Amino acid sequence: MSIDTDTARRIAGLARIRVEEADLPGLAGELSQILGWVEQLQAVDVSGVEPMTSVTPMALPMREDTVTSGDMRDKVMANAPDAREGFFAVPKVVE
What we know:
Helices cover 37% and strands 4% of the residues. It is mostly helical. Its EC number is 6.3.5.-.
């Protein structure tokens, strides 16, 4: 797929970036190359490849999902710079 300067200008506008008029042909060429690489990737047969979440296979250690401690509101609130009625108090940001 080939991108022309008008399309590059529109993409720059949608991305909210300012591109000088003289730089649009170069941007159009770079975007065309990127789309060419994507087309090459789409041509690769990956039907027998399992998806992976990491380049190295690893299993994370699991722990029991149990409550370890609770009822610490007073200790937590002691660290707050401003607490009212058992909650953190923050400055108003919306008027």
